[in-house]
Amino acid sequence: MFAAVLALLMLISAYIGNQNVRETRQKTTLNLETRNALLEQTRLLRVHLLEAYISLNVFLLDPELKKYQLKAENNIKRTIDITDSFKQNIWVKLKKESRLIYTLESLLTTFKQESAALILTRLDVNTQYPSLAVGDDLMRPSRKRFQNAIALAISELQDIQMLKKSPAIYQEFIEARHLWSQMLSHFRIYLANRVGTFNELSLPIQEQSIEILYTELKSALQDLEELRQQGRLTFELENTVVDLQQSSALWYEGFVEVKRIHNSGEWRIDSKIMKERITPVIEQISALLTLFENKLSLAAAEDIHLTSETARSQSHILWLIAFSGLLFIIAILISIEMLVFKPVSMVTRALKREALTSEPTELPSVQSQEMQDLITAFREMSTQVHTRQCALEHQATHDSLTSLPNRILLYDRIDQELHRSKDSGKNFCLMVIDLDHFKDVNDTVGHHIGDSLLIEVGKRFREILHETDTVARLGGDEFAILLPETNDDSSIEIAEKLIQTLDQAFIIDDLQLHVYASIGLAMFPEHGDDAQLLLQHADIAMYEAKREGHPFAIYDVGIDEFSIRRLALTNELPSALANNELMLKYQPKINLQNNSIIGVEALLRWEHPEFGDVPPLTIVDIAERTGLIRSLTEWVIDNSLKQCRLWADQGLDLQVAVNISVHNLKDGLLVNFIKSSIEQYQFPASILSLEITESAMMSNPMHAIENLTRLDELGLNLAIDDYGTGFSSLSYLKQLPVDELKIDKTFVIDMLDHHDDEMIVRSTIELAHNLGLRVVAEGVETAEASLKLKKMGCDIAQGYYYGMPLYHYEFEKLLKQLISSA
Ligand code: C2E
Ligand code: CA
Ligand code: CA
Known about the structure:
Layout: H1 2-61, H2 66-88, H3 90-94, H4 98-123, H5 125-128, H6 130-157, H7 160-165, H8 167-195, H9 203-229, H10 235-263, H11 269-357, H12 369-397, H13 407-424, E1 428-436, H14 438-445, H15 447-463, E2 470-475, E3 478-483, H16 488-500, E4 506-508, E5 511-513, E6 516-524, H17 531-548, E7 552-554, H18 557-578, E8 582-591, E9 596-608, E10 612-614, H19 616-626, H20 629-649, E11 655-660, H21 662-665, H22 669-680, E12 688-693, H23 694-698, H24 702-714, E13 717-723, H25 730-733, E14 740-743, H26 745-750, H27 755-770, E15 774-778, H28 783-792, E16 796-798, H29 808-821
Bound molecules: ligand C2E and calcium ion (CA) (2 copies).
């Protein structure tokens, strides 16, 4: 808001400043133009004035040159016109200089008038030369009077009587007349010299001559005066002498006046006019013009001043704007610092603290709403992050299904326990628990029940243990238990308790489920002093327990060899398979009705040069884990059919049964392989029987069912193996496309001693028959068992009583013996 107002103010002042400058510029530009015009006019005026003056002077020299008179008059007129135009000038009006112009005008008018007078003067000689006027007015009458008088006197004296009577007097008059005429002629030359300016330098000499002549004339007249006074003159002559004296004196008076004029500057009146009336006017005009020009220059200076003033005020405004802008920026920076940077760095620090310490951070509140929002958002985020972090931490350290600690947390706890026990010198126990046949539970009753079962198992373990004990789920059906500060004896006690707690069946979804477990124990420090080793040893002990069929086992260095062996076998199986180091043994299947051999079951063998006979279940397990199971099964099928071909070629019609892993069942390529193998060895499909365990049969993903159906459609014989160990009901199995049911050997072997098992065998046979299935009893070790089975209606028997699994050459030897003994 403040920023907007300031920006607006800045804009307005910038606009006004700009307007000011523009106006001033316009004004000064106008002034400048007007002034320039005025100056030009003034200059022109001066030129005309000068022209007029020069023309006047030239005219004065020679009035005959009429054109100079006109030129002078024209130029004067022009000056007046120019002055007239000044009156209309804006600047003159604006600056109120009209009075100056009027003065100028009146001076020019005077100049005009005086010039006119001058011209007139110059054109009239008498007016031009005042001395001539004096000659005319004063000297001519006295001259005439003198001349008349003396002429009269002389003519009177020329009378002979008179002349005889007074010749001296006559002489005197003649003398006077002579002096007079001489004086006059000198005067004429003098005048000519002056007016004509023929010889100015001779003027004083001429003046002197005239004065001398006059003095002489005066003395001659004085002589005559004396004669008059002596009465020697006639009356007429007496008057003449007086006349002569008076007129000559008057004339001389005139001469004195002429001399004065000639020696003054007024001997020419035009010069006088020029000097006294025109030149001062021109000087005044010039001075006035100078004043006017000065005023114009002053105005220019004023303009410059005005421009610089405007510029200065403009720059002041600009400075003001810049300064307020600066203040504004500083204010903004300060407020940004206060409202944004500080809170942001606070939030940043808090975030860092948060990130490093994972503890919720207190944030001070701030003034700015946006910052407050940010902080609130941060708090919310922080809370959410904390919640999520806790959830994530829990997720990362706990098993999602059972919510028990997972492997990571278990390792952590073991590490802590290791530290504590190393300090206190006490023992602790680590157990690994694996549920037996749990896979079957999953396969038969479904994963979701399997999952619930795992949760319940975890709960039961947890219930019988202390808070300080850790129950962790390692994955699948594997659990681990950490018992701090526990020795061997109490560890075994707890292991037994754990087994016991599973005795009671679990009820899940109305299903009664029995769970058995194998426990491996490893003791610190006896069996290892780091978490991994202890866990590995507990694991080995657990496998040992499973292998031995014991509920639990304590780790023993001896059993470790088992795991080393398994590792070696895993590494060697691929090459063993490729190099035909694996072999097949064949166990006969006997038709109980006529005791004839109807076929064989192919059983896998691996006589390892170092470890001896490797159990087929181990080979299969390794193959399943290492992805070799398809190759392995194909190898078995190929070799069995090859063997059958050989036997068939020898005239022995034997069916061959091959064991199929659950993995094979899910493999769509198996059907094609079997089909092409049968074709390759030119057998009907009925030659091959596939034995699939009950649990494998029950793991019924779409693929398995589909493949079973396709195998059945090929015309193969499909058998359910190890029947009785899983959880399937016969009514369920009947939906599968199977032909044969093999009762698991544990029931058959135990059948003679346990009535329960006998009942199971009997009812199974009956039910299977009802469902149209052929029944095979495996594990027939005695004649007694075989007899019983025959009575029960069992179709086929297989077991040591009839024959051990044998290599093909051994089997052929046995066959020959049988044939020869028959
Ligand atoms: P199985 O399919 O139940 O095979 C019968 C097992 O019972 C064989 O053990 C055989 O030696 C044993 N047996 C036969 N008659 C008697 C008897 O009278 N008494 C007793 N106690 N046992 C008898 P074997 O050869 O050790 O095979 C174990 C299991 O390994 C087989 O059980 C089968 O599930 C699996 N197996 C063997 N060969 C293969 C194979 O090529 N592929 C697959 N996937 N599994 C195989
Ligand atoms: Ca079998
Ligand atoms: Ca079996």
